[in-house]
Amino acid sequence: MKITNYGVTLSRLTEDKIELVRNWRNDPKIAQYMEFEEYITPEMQLTWFNKINNDKNYYFIIEYNKHEVGLINVKDIDSEIYQGEAGIFIYDDDCLNSTVSFQATLCLYDFCFETLKLKQLTAHILNDNKRAIKFNKMIGFKILQNQELIKNQSYILTFKDYIKNRNEISPIISQ
Amino acid sequence: METTEFINNFASQFDDTDASEFTLETRFRELDEWSSLNALAILNMIGKKYSVFLKPDEMKPVQTVRELYDLVQSKIK
After folding, report:
1. What is the distance in angstroms between the Cα of B43 and the nearest Cα belonging to chain A?
2. ipTM of the complex model
3. Which of A8, A66, A154, B61 is the most buried (most CB within 10 A)?
4. What chain B residue is nearest to A93 in terms of C-alpha separation?
């Protein structure tokens, strides 16, 4: 499964790519921003993949200019309340300082809201990850109440807030 | 477009740099806090406040707040 939009292609994660993702995920530059920071073994990675390889979880490799640069996902989809949890990391340093993260995010969120028909997305962000907080607020995420003293803070994005912010950002990042 | 208002709008896109540090001569790329995310936030602000939709590539040669102000002003005229 591939989705191409906003100048990026999202390719659904397959078993032959889980070692690539494991190596990215174990790199301290990525692990430091994750709630689970422990080293991930090949066996742990395969167990994880078998758990998420279904229609409740969509993990995609982000491809930009034919290079695999990061991972984006919507997970734990609840089809009763039409909600899922979003996440992203960019491994490629060149793409970190570019619009690729926005391109990939809009590509995935269009899929979430327009194809999967979700009504809202959630996100968890460590409270010292200022870059991620700024990024998610630009997309339209809002922090939930009473989160100030929590390290792993909860944010929510409604369809309405997403469309408003997407329409403002897409002219900037369109290629 | 009024310069003080533009500087204030520009400064509000930064979290850690005090707004009083910003002038038309500020070389914003030299700030510790500067990142591509600030660039996108600034382009987003310019689109919303001034209805001028700059591309990231158009902002790349810009070094000071004044140069950005002049660029936006040239698109308004």
Report:
1. 7
2. 0.71
3. A8
4. B36
Four-way CATH pick for B3-14+22-76: 1.10.1200.10, 1.10.10.10, 1.20.1250.20, 3.40.720.10: 1.10.1200.10
Where in the sequence is the domain holding A45, given as residue range(s)? 2-173
Q: Which residue of B has its CA nearest to A95?
A: B36
One DSSP character per residue, chain A reads: -EEEETTEEEEE--GGGHHHHHHHHHSHHHHTTSS--SPPPHHHHHHHHHHH-BTTBEEEEEEETTEEEEEEEEEEEETTTTEEEEEEEE--HHHHTSSHHHHHHHHHHHIIIIIS--SEEEEEEETT-HHHHHHHHHHT-EEPTT-TT-SEEEEEEEHHHHHHHHHHHHHHH--
| B15-55 per-position pLDDT tens digit | 889 999 999 999 999 998 888 788 889 998 998 899 998 98
- Per residue in A89-147, pLDDT tens? 999 988 876 789 999 999 999 999 999 999 999 999 989 888 889 889 999 999 999 88
- Chain B residue closest in CA terms to A98: B36
Number of domains in chain A: 1
Nearest to B37 among A135, A168, A171 (CB): A135
Of A134, A138, A172, the CB nearest to B47: A172
Contact B36 A134 (CB under 8 A): no
pTM confidence score: 0.86
